Amino acid sequence: MNAHTLRLLEFDTVRDGVASLTLGASGERVVLSSEVLTDHDLIAARLDLVADWRVVLAGEERVPDAPFPDIEPLFVVLEKEGTVLDEEQLAAVSLFIAAAVGFAKSGGDLEADRPLHGRLEALPDLSRIRRQVSVYISDTGEIKDDAIPELRRLRARIRTTEGRIEKQAVAYLRDPDRAQYWTSDAPTQRNGRTVLPLSANYRNRVKGIVHEVSQTGATLFVEPSDLVDLNNELREAQAAYDQEIQRILRELTAAVRAELPALRTLEAETADLDALLARARYGAQHDCFRAAPRAEGVSLSGARHPLLRGAVVPIEVRIDPPFRGLIVTGPNTGGKTVALKTTGLLALMNQFGMEIPADEGSALPLFDDIFADIGDEQSLEQSLSTFSGHMTTIADVLKHAGRRSLVLLDEVGAGTDPEEGSALAMSVLDEIERIGATSVVTTHHGALKNYAYKSGFFENASVEFDPQRLAPTFHVLIGVPGTSHALDIAERNGLPTEVVRRAAGYVEEGQGDEARIIHDLTEKQVELHRATRARDTELEGLRKRRAELEEQSQRLADRELSLRKEGLQEFERLSRETRRRLENLVREIREGELTREKTGRVREFLDELTETAEEERERVAAAEREQARARPATEPKELAPGMEVAVGESGRRGVIRRKGKGDSWVVETESVRLELPAEQLRPAGGGGGGAGGGGARGAGGGGDAGSVSLSYESARSPAPELELDVRGYRLPEAVAEVDRRIDDCLLSGVTQFSVIHGKGEGILQKGIRDHLASRDEVSSYDFARPEEGGYGKTVVHLRET
């Protein structure tokens, strides 16, 4: 891949960012040494592993964040027989193996056929080495002498000998007869042996070995004769301790050396997987998605330059066949160069095996090479290079580019005479078309807009400009040429209005009919693009709202199921307890004489059952009231003649014809005219409450239904069925069916029908009968004869109209 392009597009900065996310130095080296690939299979394999890591990062089993110690330099030591690793080096090997073991276990959320799962499963298991080293050496690189019997014994011997030496030395220094001999009251060390600070004046008073003389000669550091044997004994114990440590280190080093091939494999594999994990972490941080492959063209939606900070405006870059190039125009600082660099950088990231900061569904082809000539040689903030420098770079691009290349040219033809620059730019574009390379070109030359309209290879594009704010929006419009808006920007920046006006006149004089037509077409395209974008935004909002509603519906369904299960469990518990108590009472009555006390207990039992049922009803009613309060309030509409309304709980549609008596309205349905109170009417399609402050009554609600007057103005409706079976319904559904049957009967002139509700627990029976009591249209209702259903069926009699 072209090194000059990598530098211009700041790819090294992105690669450094990935390297900083690795867990170990080896992984960092792998990232920094990795190349941009041009082989489709290698890129796909790398991206598959990165995608697997993204699954792991998003799963419940997080990747361990334990760092990998850098053990690669230790391989040189281990290759040489006889060499011994010290405590810290062995601790590094142990920690590395521990981190690798945790690393290997991190793929638990992956399917068995995923490539990362296989790579992690294949990692060598060297946990035996970890356990062996951990017996003797801590993770901080210290010998665990307390856990090793021989070292513990030697350490105790050393401490005992040191104590005897200190005791003897203190005896010398605190002896009153020798107090004047010493220049200090504390012993000191010379060459690992305890000595005493003897004044030179008393040299002959203390027998022993002189180890050192102070610079002034006033003090001799003497090892008294009776300390010599003790110091020798201490040195022997320390030597034995050191020898035991060396023996342990040799054994541990030999164990590690025996596994050197496996350790090398483990280090190389974890480094590579660590580098891929770093790519996945980078993708997660920048909200990246995998680019879909495509044979030709570019499709980037919601693309963002990963090095820009702050509120970055996502851009769209699309090159669809038969086009293979874009000519991007627009104002300075409008985002043309950023669009150019974003396209090139995202292509490099994709072929580096990274996800790209763009919307899901973005697609990129495979490029053999990427060439760029961008005015800011270092970064987005640097100044332009010279015209000669541009020409040198473009000459090199045209020499080496091929059909599978991506060519990025910034301000082509700039820096010289505009007429010659335009001609030169068009000739360069002709050569790019001959080569067939995919290309994105930015320019201020108006002639290149016309060139794109006539070309079947290049398509116009522009960076959008907000005429109200006189500022760029940084959106890229495909298929729409742009203008520099130099006059608008000049006026905004203080150029006198008269000067700007004259300049506009010169521009208008210089424009031909063809330029005006293109300008008008451009304005139409801009309007169309804005309308399309507004529609897409609205559709996206609707899709999100739909997803939210579906999720909310699922939550409510789950909650309803949960409540039903809870209610069933509570009912079963109450049923078992009630059955147990009832059986006990029956047994007591049968076993003995029926007394006042037993009769009282039976009544008490029945009263408790009644009280429990009432408490349950109140609990349900309270929950319904709470739910009603939680619903968003809606402003009721005022009733008026001509308004379509829903009548009562049945929901039958009708139209208000006129105001009736008091708070009532005359409503005409399909074949009947009714005078109904306002509380029984609500605007058609509206929510629960009707106008006039009243809402539709609940299953057990009361309230005055008011008077109803009927006048038949057409043929009666077909006669309804005279038997309504609501078994298996929930109470609100059953009540709604009863209301509909009442309305159908009234419209058909039928005055009697029956409701089969069953016996069961009595909930439907009681709820329906309570509701019938609230309907003024019902004159009476009774249970059916035993042979016709008895208490499981209610016969309803309606008032004649």
Give a structural overview.
This protein has 801 residues and is an alpha/beta fold. The chain contains 21 helices and 24 strands. It has a six-stranded mixed sheet with strand order 10-11-12-8-13-14, with helices on both faces. It has a six-stranded antiparallel sheet with strand order 19-15-16-17-18-20. A hairpin with a 4-residue loop joins strand 15 (644-647) and strand 16 (652-659). Helix 2 (11-19) runs antiparallel to helix 3 (25-33) and helix 16 runs antiparallel to helix 17. It is flat. Residues 376-385 and 686-717 have low confidence and may be disordered.
List the helices and strands and how they pair.
Blueprint: H1 3-8, H2 11-19, H3 25-33, H4 40-58, H5 74-79, H6 87-104, H7 115-121, H8 127-136, H9 149-174, E1 188-190, E2 193-199, E3 208-213, E4 219-224, H10 225-258, H11 260-285, E5 292-293, E6 298-303, E7 315-319, E8 325-329, H12 336-351, E9 363-364, E10 369-373, H13 387-400, E11 405-409, H14 418-435, E12 438-442, H15 447-454, E13 458-466, E14 471-478, H16 486-492, H17 497-510, H18 513-591, H19 596-630, E15 644-647, E16 652-659, E17 664-668, E18 672-677, E19 681-683, E20 710-712, E21 723-725, H20 731-748, E22 752-756, H21 763-774, E23 778-783, E24 793-798
Parallel strand pairs: 5-9, 8-12, 8-13, 10-11, 11-12, 21-22
Antiparallel strand pairs: 1-2, 2-4, 3-4, 6-7, 13-14, 15-16, 15-19, 16-17, 17-18, 18-20, 22-24, 23-24
Brief account:
The chain is of the alpha/beta class and 801 residues long.
Output the radius of gyration. 46 Å
The count of β-strands is 24
Secondary structure tally, helices: 21
Q: How large is the share of residues in beta strands?
A: 15-25%
Distance between the termini: 92 Å
Low-confidence stretches: 376-385, 686-717
**Order of strands side by side in the largest beta sheet?**
10-11-12-8-13-14
Helix content: 40-55%
Largest sheet: number of strands, sense, barrel closure: 6 strands, mixed
Q: Please, what is the average pLDDT? A: 82
Outline: flat
Structural class: alpha/beta
